[in-house]
Amino acid sequence: MGTFLVFLLKSTCCLAAFYLFYRLLLSRDTFHRFNRMALLSVIVFSVAIPFIRLVTDEPVAVQRTMLDIERLLLMAAAPVEETTAPASDMTLWLTALFAIYVAVACFLRGGFSIPSGRLCV
To answer: Structural domain boundaries of the chain?
Structure first.
């Protein structure tokens, strides 16, 4: 679930950046076929870019402060009975965030699927 949330955040950031690029540079052009292809490629790239991982083979020098932070994290990860409760709270928060995301997406999808923007009563 956490990996999917990270993917959604990366994809949303890419989509926002590409759309801003489109609005600033391409929205006033009258080449409708080019604009259509640009918008479709923006969607494809915003989904594909989060899957790209950059890996370097160069060794990174670990600083002294990083070692101290690692030692503190290892001490904090020591098995204590009280530390198991926040893990379930984190899962609850992720589930709640995902539920809100799905609810907003369904609401917006419903608003866009109504013909001519009027509610049918």
So the answer is: 1-55
Whether residue 121 has pLDDT greater than 50: no
pTM over 0.85: no
Place of tokens 């540079």: 25
Instruction: State residue 53 phi and psi, 5-degree precision.
Output: -115, 130
CA 96 to chain centre: 16
The better pLDDT of the pair 85, 41 is held by 41
Are 104 and 11 spatial neighbours (Cβ–Cβ below 8 Å)?
no
Q: Are 38 and 29 in contact (CB under 8 A)?
A: no
C-alpha to C-alpha distance for 44 and 32, rounded to whole angstroms: 18
Query: Is the separation of the CB atoms in 45 and 18 below 8 Å?
Result: yes
45-100 pLDDT, tens per residue? 888 988 888 777 777 665 566 666 677 677 777 665 554 455 566 778 888 888 89
Buried-state track 108-120, b at ≥16 Cβ within 10 A, e below 16? eeeeeeeeeeeee
H or E, element range at 80: none
